Amino acid sequence: MFEVNVDTVCFIINKCREFQAKDSVEIDAGPDGMGDDWASRMLSSYEDEVTVQEVRGAFESLEPAQQAEVVALMWVGRGDFDASEWVEARSEAKSAWTPPPRTADYVMSTPLAADYLEDGLGAFGFDCED
């Protein structure tokens, strides 16, 4: 069903949760789209964080279509699309795709990204439970 491996999405979920839970991290509400450089600017002060590097590395290992699917899953989990609109969500995410690290930064800088990704997986019957 997905081009991206569910285990990879779960890794990104765990790392986003780990990053956003740090006391030093403040994530402001920002633009909804990936095309804006806001996310990269917001994360620039966290570039030395191991978790940021791990998430960026995970995205860099994915093909552009797989990166877009992660974003589409986040959008489904956030309620921008529902599971029946998957083809449209994925198409829109592919159209808005930007090269790493911007896609990774967009996901990491989205408040509640881990929850949205988890809910997105859940909409298709997947979860990150071992």
From TrEMBL:
Pfam families: DUF3775. This is DUF3775 domain-containing protein. It comes from Halorhodospira halochloris.
